[in-house]
Write a structure and sequence with these properties.
This protein is α/β, with parallel strands linked by helices. It contains seven helices and eight strands. It starts with 13 loop residues before the first strand and ends in a 7-residue tail after the last helix. The protein binds 5-O-phosphono-beta-D-ribofuranosylamine (GRF).
């Protein structure tokens, strides 16, 4: 078989996890539920998404902020019933700050280098988000490990996006890892955050084919396009599942 043709698959699809044993209340079940989350048409729910109060999001980002932008655009377009209350970034040069300013969304630099421990950093992040009544924490390219301090401040309400089909290729340089491994399909995953990096229950994934001649850059660009599609949808879906079952802490 010509190995170059083995990468041919149908267009990328958003697919939902069905099985994480530890997913508990947070897991999602069928593609129908994803549609319901998008359309707010689940008749068994007391309120549709559109009728509910907007989700109060706090975004954490370290870099370019294209996922922040995609979420903000989905909110603006009425595709996600939410508000972004605060963006926290940890690198002074992170482009997300500029993007937030353009949208008049508050953004604060919390530089991890000025903290003596990860716990102290997370305490400060939690304090700032709580000060804005944030309910959901969205890690949109946050390049730091989080501790129990942040997790316990927002139980089952922290989501991350990762550029691989987890559990494959967790950690750093995931796109490069996938290319080097010779897999034909990779993608991106939105998952609940747990203590072990890139380990929590998966909310939504999109598959991206690896094409002949792909470089890290070209593949990463196609993965990011899918990230921007699924992240807003996954936030709505996760919130629909969790809000009804797990009370938020104040
Ligand atoms: C994304 O590719 C995401 O998967 C990873 O960090 C990147 C952030 O990109 N966790 P951006 O800052 O949202 O453009």
């Amino acid at each position: 078989m010509n190995i170059e043709t083995a990468a041919l698959i149908s267009p990328p699809l958003a697919i939902l996890s069905t099985d994480s044993a530890h997913a508990s209340q947070a897991s999602v079940d069928t593609a129908d539920e994803a549609d319901e989350a998008k359309s707010g048409s689940n008749e068994s729910e007391p309120k549709s998404e559109a009728e509910s109060e907007p989700l109060r999001l706090g975004v954490m980002a370290s870099g370019s902020g294209s996922n922040f932008e995609a979420i903000a655009a989905a909110i603006e377009a009425g595709r996600l019933n939410a508000t972004i209350e605060l963006v926290i970034y940890n690198n002074p040069q992170a482009r997300v700050a500029e993007r937030a300013a353009k949208r008049q969304i508050p953004a604060e630099l919390i530089d991890h280098r000025t903290f003596t421990s990860r716990e102290a950093l997370d305490d400060e992040i939690a304090r700032r988000f709580k000060g804005c009544n944030v309910e959901w924490v969205i890690m949109a390219g946050w390049m730091r490990r989080v501790t129990e301090r942040l997790l316990s401040a927002f139980p089952s309400r922290i989501l991350n996006i990762h550029p691989s089909l987890l559990p494959s290729f967790p950690g750093i340089r995931s796109v490069e890892q996938a290319l080097n491994a010779g897999v034909k399909i990779t993608g991106c995953s939105v998952h609940f955050v747990e203590l072990i990096v890139d380990s929590g229950p998966i909310v939504m994934q999109a598959a991206v084919p690896i094409l002949p001649g792909d470089s890290v850059e070209s593949l990463q660009a196609r993965i990011q396009q899918q990230e921007h599609v699924i992240f807003p949808q996954a936030i709505a879906l996760a919130a629909q599942k969790v809000s009804a079952t797990i009370p938020a802490t104040s």
